[in-house]
Amino acid sequence: MKVTGKQKNSRMCVICGMDNPFGLKAPFYNMEDGSVMTKFMYREEHQSYPGRVHGGLIGAMLDELGFRACWVKDDSVWGVTMNLETLYRKPVPYGEELIGRGKVERQTARFAQVKSEIMTMDGTILASATGKFLLMGLNQIAQNAEVHEELHLMVEDDVAEINFGSGDGHEE
To answer: What is this structure's pTM?
Structure first.
């Protein structure tokens, strides 16, 4: 699937923060179908049981994908998670490249409902979530004036497509 644009990263976010030594440093891309996608890899320090990623970090990625799906149409939209209903389908491994995808299902001026998922490179869905986000101004979320610099880090790359196969219950 073709990439239509790249989203900005932050400095310290556990999911997209480029300066966070414990973070995923995940890049996010706007896709031609209106979704947001990322290719990323959890590391051993993200585990719960050996060989499996901690459920909280799985939920954090699904949450990030949900919010970033709102940025596909308008990157000036900010918000906070109201709820996130997560379904853990299969163990999520670390040390293996994965795909994350989020897409807005419904959006109004104040709310967005989004579906997100984490899958293997062959398209097998490992975890999914439906989330509701309250859309609000960045200054309402974080009163610190330095927040704009923290959250607007563009890391250029040459990713033009993200391809993955069809797996359990997913069609590309």
So the answer is: 0.90
